[in-house]
Write a structure and sequence with these properties.
This protein is about 35% helix and about 0% strand. The protein is an all-alpha fold.
């Protein structure tokens, strides 16, 4: 797994799906978006 797999810059903007207006992470959308990468972390 590379460091680019879950890139904080790819989470988006507050207008997108991954951040709140106060720039805090939304857990559920991020978990859904990166489900395969998260599974790969625990499978190794």
């Amino acid at each position: 797994m590379t460091t680019e797999s879950v890139n904080p810059k790819s989470v988006g903007t507050p207008a997108g799906n991954g951040l709140t207006p106060t720039m805090m992470l939304k857990r559920k959308p991020i978990a859904e978006q990166y489900a395969a990468a998260i599974e790969a972390l625990y499978a190794a």
